[in-house]
Amino acid sequence: MKLDAPVTGGPCWTELGTSDLDAARRFYTRLFGWRPETDARQEAGGYTVAHLGDAAVAALAPLYQPSQPVAWNVSFAVTDADATVRAVTEAGGTLLLGPMDVFDVGRFAVAADPGGAVFQLWQAGTFPGAGLFNAPGSLGWVELMTRDPEGAVSFYTRVFGWTVAPSDRYTQFGIGGADFGGMVTMDEKFPPEVPAHWLPYFAVADVDDTTAVVQQHGTVLMVPTSVPDGPRIAVLRDPQGAMFGVYRAGDEA
């Protein structure tokens, strides 16, 4: 990711909704060396922020409603959540939750693009988003998995003003040309029951070692692979079923 801090329109945070918060804390602490801190306020509902040193890097939270899937979610920074929600619906997306205030830390909403991929909007208050990107254990890339790539490009460029770097192999999204993510077209290799979704990638020191740890407790969906002219990556699933990617820190992602 060519961004190293939250930027309007870019990914600023990622959080896990999980069916077993205690197990997720143990798994990701072992995997990434996180230091989790749970908000003690009852109204926070067990929301847990993971840190590397003093930097907040991600969050873990219980499922707040029965229909919520176990999954990692990606948040994009906006200056006005309400205005962005209007842009989302005008572009053919769907509002799923909010906008709503979260104490004094910010205002957020949950939406889905026309292809069904869910994402979050974050209007910063006292909390701008992750304090560290691209370092081992932190967010370093986000990837859209979609069955409608042309519709996705039209939607996200209209809503966020993203720049698009297309290629025959892989389309990348950016802010002013600073790429932060990409897009994969879901073909027949993807089971029909797998919905369109956003997938966060975390930087790690060694993709193979990280994958070996996950094999003991979770699932390897894509074995460590060196992308031509790109990073070494793997796609993994935690014990509760949430998918995420990892890539070798220092590689261009």
Automatic annotation (TrEMBL):
This is VOC family protein. InterPro entries: Anthracycline_SecMetBiosynth (IPR052164), Glyas_Bleomycin-R_OHBP_Dase (IPR029068), Glyas_Fos-R_dOase_dom (IPR004360), VOC_core (IPR037523). Pfam families: Glyoxalase. It comes from the Bacteria. PROSITE patterns: VOC (PS51819). Gene3D superfamilies: 2,3-Dihydroxybiphenyl 1,2-Dioxygenase, domain 1 (3.10.180.10). SUPFAM superfamilies: Glyoxalase/Bleomycin resistance protein/Dihydroxybiphenyl dioxygenase. Residues 10-124, 138-249 form the VOC domain.
